[in-house]
């Protein structure tokens, strides 16, 4: 997609258009009526690779806590932090998920 001003249709009868920058990984989870109910839904990763030097690359991250506590200090707050990295070429692809912090 070229830069600059562009118009895209967003009819009421379908989902809104979502644009993701190449090279990004977005964790997604279906919503529900409450936080507790949403947390029962599985995650999926939307991978939007960016072609660079013959490889398709993407990266992203996820912070996950209880969804209710107020964060007073990240030094003492319990949360998970994962980092995702995707690489691919015509011979195959790999996705790594590394835990950077565990609650």
How are the secondary structure elements laid out?
Layout: E1 24-29, H1 35-38, E2 43-48, E3 50-52, E4 55-64, E5 80-89, E6 92-101
Antiparallel strand pairs: 1-2, 3-4, 4-5, 5-6
Tell me what you see in this structure:
The protein has 103 residues and is mainly beta. The chain has a domain of 68 residues. The protein is 4% helix and 44% strand. The chain has one helix and six strands. The strands form two sheets. The protein has a four-stranded antiparallel beta sheet with strand order 3-4-5-6, with no helix packed on it. Strands 1-2 form a two-stranded antiparallel ribbon. Strand 3 and strand 4 form a beta hairpin. It is extended and about 45 Å long. The N and C termini lie far apart (40 Å).
Quick overview:
One of its GO terms (molecular function) is alpha-1,4-glucosidase activity. This protein has one helix and six strands, in the order E-H-E-E-E-E-E.
